[in-house]
UniProtKB/TrEMBL annotation:
InterPro entries, alphabetized: AB_hydrolase_fold (IPR029058), PGAP1-ab_dom-like (IPR012908)
Residue span(s) of domain GPI inositol-deacylase PGAP1-like alpha/beta: 333-399
Native species: Bifidobacterium felsineum
Membrane-spanning ranges: none
Domain of life assignment: Bacteria
GO MF annotations in UniProt: hydrolase activity, acting on ester bonds
Protein name: GPI inositol-deacylase PGAP1-like alpha/beta domain-containing protein
């Protein structure tokens, strides 16, 4: 026998949950909760009816076969009469019972799905879920502090189990499965490691969540000066010009996320828009409101890791520090704030910031530490560990995270769930592969099946451009875009409030899009830019 191995193609989808950003009174929350419980109760009732109808069909089958010597009764066909015997149509009765069972089961599923949708859209149990998550994180943190060696071995064992599980599924080793298997432990292990590095005694950090930031601050005391020696501490900031449009006009969070993805992937070389933009580049846009005043949107991609970039790996440690002075000295923050000054952003003009990964941490840092210099009204972060940044309560924050991306868990804590801070948390899962349509030999057609992203559009959103040969690290921005799309599809009032606020900040006509590039040097003499002579035609 010849064994033929076939490769399975995978398509990926993201299902979202929403935390924080609640915009209605506790009484309204109680009403929604009561409705969800009532729908669940009705679902259970119809499920029981389905079982009853199924049992009735079985009882009819048993009754029919209880007299095998009676051909009329055993056949269930009233036309097959035997002298002195009459019977009903058992076949028809059994089919009707099965039909009723299926109908009740379908109605039960629909009611349960509606209750689940109501719970997800209105975050009815988010407070309880976050409290349970916080408790679990604190337990893992304490265990990591008390027995760091055991914690390391245990986490490694779980990661190895994920690797082997993924190997069995895909037929090849894929390290992405290690993050998928360990994601429930990541915040606790990170906060425990941060507490060890930050000198936080066991049990003393229960009232706080910033252990990672304290640890990062201690590391930055050493890594910062070393970085300044190796990379230099002077930033050359040059306005550069795109040959083709990269960051276009935006009127929503979704559009701004797409612009962020285009800029991030263009400067990393993952896509080619022939713009001429390189690493260490951000975008600043000015919108003119109906009254003639200006509003601003600053788009900040993440780490590019280049040797002379202000968005290198080392800057992440400083950005995560609990020390304000250390945070504002981070090169990526200095680069963005100096570019904002060059762009002419006024102290009272409304500003929205959007960033991915390190870019989101930069945005959170500017909102936290530059609130007296700039009017930061809304911050959007994607895959950024910013839970412990002291963002003012009047600044709106919309955070998008994927549960197994690891980067979002590096802060060792869940984001605050307040009226002005909303978090969309996505979960990645495989979706069915599409099958093509075909025309049969007799001329009949067999329609193809499209990928089913959940039973309804509300269940999950597809990952555009996701891999087809297996899982990948879900830190890429396309996963956050899918998570936000699914949260939007849910019709969450909290998300709608945040979306409306973001749109209100940048409402108006786009007047200009300017790009600024940063390079780290040891000299204070600014190096010429290769793009300084190019003329931008996109505004």
């Amino acid at each position: 026998m010849e064994l033929v191995m076939t490769q399975t193609n995978y398509y990926w989808q993201v299902e979202s949950s929403i935390y924080g950003g609640i915009g209605y009174a506790p009484a309204t929350l109680e009403e929604y909760t009561a409705i969800a419980k009532a729908l669940d109760a009705e679902a259970s009732g119809f499920d029981m009816l389905s079982v009853s109808w199924s049992n009735a069909a079985l009882q009819l089958q048993s009754h029919r076969t209880s007299a095998p010597l009676c051909p009329t009764l055993s056949s269930g066909d009233p036309l097959m009469k035997t002298a002195g015997h009459e019977t009903v149509s058992y076949t028809a009765l059994e089919q009707r019972c099965q039909d009723h069972a299926l109908a009740c089961r379908k109605l039960s599923i629909d009611l349960a799905d509606t209750a689940s949708l109501l719970i997800r859209a209105h975050a009815l149990y988010s407070e309880a879920e976050l409290q349970a998550r916080r408790t679990f994180t604190e337990l893992i943190q304490a265990g990591t502090q008390f027995k760091p060696g055991h914690a390391a071995i245990g986490t490694a064992a779980v990661a190895l189990g994920g690797l082997l599980s993924g190997w069995a599924i895909e037929g090849r080793p894929n390290a992405s499965w290690m993050s998928t298997s360990t994601y429930p432990l990541q915040e606790g292990v990170m906060s425990g490691a941060g507490a060890l590095l930050g000198g936080v005694p066991i049990g003393k950090g229960v009232a706080h969540t910033d252990e990672v930031n304290k640890g990062a601050g201690n590391i930055a005391k050493v890594s910062g000066p070393i970085k300044d020696i190796v990379q230099g501490n002077h930033i050359d900031i040059t306005e550069v010009y795109a040959r083709n449009e990269v960051v276009g006009a935006s009127n929503s969070v979704s559009t701004s996320m797409e612009n962020l993805r285009r800029l991030a992937e263009e400067r990393l070389g993952k896509i080619n828009l022939d713009s001429g933009l390189e690493y260490g580049t951000i975008a600043i846009q000015r919108y003119e409101k109906s009254d003639g005043s200006s509003a601003w949107l600053v788009t900040i991609p993440g780490t590019d890791g280049k040797a002379d970039s202000p968005f290198g790996w080392e800057q992440n440690v400083e950005l995560m520090s609990s020390d304000k002075e250390r945070r504002i000295r981070a090169d990526s923050v200095r680069m963005v704030t100096q570019a904002m000054e060059q762009a002419g952003i006024g102290a009272d003009e409304p500003v929205a910031l959007i960033g991915h990964s390190q870019g989101g941490i930069v945005a959170a840092t500017i909102a936290s530490d530059w609130s007296e210099q700039y009017n930061i009204e809304h911050v959007v972060t994607a895959g950024s560990p910013v839970a412990n940044h002291p963002i003012p309560s009047d600044t709106w924050v919309t955070s998008v995270e994927i549960d197994d991306e690891l980067v979002g868990a590096l802060d060792g804590a869940a984001n605050p769930a307040t009226k002005n801070w909303l978090t969309v948390r996505g979960h990645v899962s495989p979706a069915p592969e599409a099958t093509p349509s075909s025309v049969n030999a007799d001329g009949s057609c067999t329609p193809g099946a499209t990928p089913i992203y959940g039973a309804t559009p509300y269940d999950a959103a597809p990952v555009a451009g996701g891999p087809t040969n297996g899982r990948e690290i879900s830190h890429w921005l396309k996963y956050h875009q899918a998570a936000y799309q699914n949260a939007t599809d849910l019709g969450s009032p909290a998300l709608q409030r945040h979306e409306s606020h973001f749109q209100g900040v940048i409402s108006g006509e786009l007047k200009e899009t300017r790009y600024f590039q940063g390079r780290m040097t040891a000299s204070t003499i600014q190096a010429p830019s290769d793009h300084s002579e190019e003329i931008s035609t996109f505004h």
